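Two records follow; treat each independently.
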Amino acid sequence: MKPSAAPPKSGPTAPKHTIYNHFGDKERLFRAAIAALADQALTRNLAAVDLLRAGAGTDLQAVLEEVGLRLAECYCDERSWALRRLLQAEVTNLPDLLDIVRERASDKVNEALADRFARLALAGHLSVSDPAVAAEQFGALLTAPLETRSQLGTRTLPEKELTEVTQNAVRTFLRAFSNG
């Protein structure tokens, strides 16, 4: 009995494609995943900040509370917690991950908030000498209590608690920056 011959090749054999053919290695794949999460966070956060554009001529406290609540919901979203956990776990090995998130999301959200606060100051609604600092402080007034109350994302905060944190943050912000 003759050994069976290999089937004839009908053309060049294509290499086996994997995800690494596209990204190169695990680190690049991981960076791409972090960038995608940051892009998703940016979209939702900018939509929240954009509420300041529409509501600038109305009750400022109410508008800031709505913006703050939407930002708090974004911050407490499971994808946002997952992104922060990944960053915390890997930042010592891949320090550029923080830069990716800052450049793709955090900085842009702060810049948008600063722009809105500058416009509100020009319209006489806020007393802000440095809109970037005001934006940073608004974010801190929201995020610090959310981290504590949610136990770094391990506890889901009910809507009532998100509202309470937001109202406290806005009242404190307005005490520092209101023009009235």
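The next record belongs to a different protein.
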Amino acid sequence: MKKTKFALAALGVLASGCAFAQNAGDWVAGAGWFHLSPQDSSKPLTVTAPVQSVLQGSGASVKDSDTLGLSLAYFIDSHWAVEGVLGVPPKFKLEGKGTLARVGELGEARQWSPTVLVKYNFNEGNDAFRPFVGLGATYVWYSDVKLTPNLQGALASQFRQSPYAVNTTAKLDSSFAPVLNAGVSYQLDKHWGLSFSVSYIPLKTKAKLTTTSVTGLPVARSEASLKLNPIVTFLSATYRF
């Protein structure tokens, strides 16, 4: 009798597993925690005008950042899905390295990077546990770019001007970048599930700085190239419609 009950329970579990099925036309929304960890490197700060020169030994590094991530996936069939991913723009802080280490924090900026992925889900649609891989692209741009007073003063000194007589603004170049993605999902019931993924984005940008006098006339222009190459982890709760 006990064996019969166990067999019936096992059949019930298998039957309930069918409720996990991810089929063509399903939508899955997710929300959770983004952690962005730049694997960064930089080239020395280069003055491009009025006279070209290089600030030898200078560099910068970007600190890790966390933010809220949102996703929405559409299943083409039980294996293939197209997913859009967007995070609340995280704030990155830039620290001086080498000859700029004494300056400390150089500035900050918010990064916008909406992403589209094509994903392949392994196992079958009615399996609760499903690894996946994805490939896609992101368009990255930056807002709220601010330089610290310490960097403002260092640049003023570099150009032999009074710190009170000049101001420096910065702009970061926008760019497209590929996205490599892999992870696992686990369906808790018909609607709710969990997902964890890791993405790698080979990303670089160029910071262009313009130093002006109190009258607004340009005193100098300089630039620095940054490789960010972030590893992005995304832990989310998901809901299937």
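Discussion point: The helical segments are 2-17, 149-158. How would you locate this feature using only the token line?
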